[in-house]
Amino acid sequence: MSGKLTIILFFLFLNISFLFPTSISGFNQEEQLELFDNQFSGKIPEEIGQLTSLEIFRFGGNVGIKGEIPMQISSCKELVNLGLADIGVMGQIPHSIGELKKL
After folding, report:
1. Is residue 38 a contact partner of residue 61, using CB atoms and an 8 Å limit?
2. Domain extents for the chain?
3. What pTM did the predictor assign?
4. Any keyword Acetylation (predicted)?
C-alpha cells in the first residue's frame, strides 16, 4: 500500500447557487474538484493555485462565473484534466497553463 489518501469532492448538477468560495485553499488535499453544471457565480479565485495536489478540476456549465482564468492555476502542477467549458470567463488564457506538463 502506498499510504496515499485520495480525496474527491463532487457537486454535480445540484443547482447550487452561490458565489464561488475564495476560501477554496482550505481544500488543499483534494485531488478532484468537480463542480460542473451548478449555478456558481463570481470568479475563479486566485487561491486555486494553492491546491497543489489537484489533478482534476471540472467547472464547466457555471455560466455565472466571470472574470479571467487566474494565472495562479499554473501552480496546480498535478492537473491532468481542466474543464472550463460553458463559463463566462473572458480574456486570454494564461500562458503559464502551457507549463502544466500533465495537462
Report:
1. yes
2. 8-99
3. 0.75
4. no
Q: Which three cell numbers stand for residue 82?
A: 481542466
DSSP code at position 19:
B
Count, residues in the chain:
103
Query: Which contacts (CB < 8 Å, 24+ apart) does range 4-10 have?
Result: 5/29, 6/31, 7/31, 7/32, 8/32, 8/34, 9/33, 9/34, 9/35, 10/34
CATH tag, 8-99: 3.80.10.10
pLDDT on residue 33: 83
Q: Check residues 26 and 85 and name the one with the higher pLDDT.
A: 85
Summarize the confidence of residues 9-24 as an average pLDDT. 53
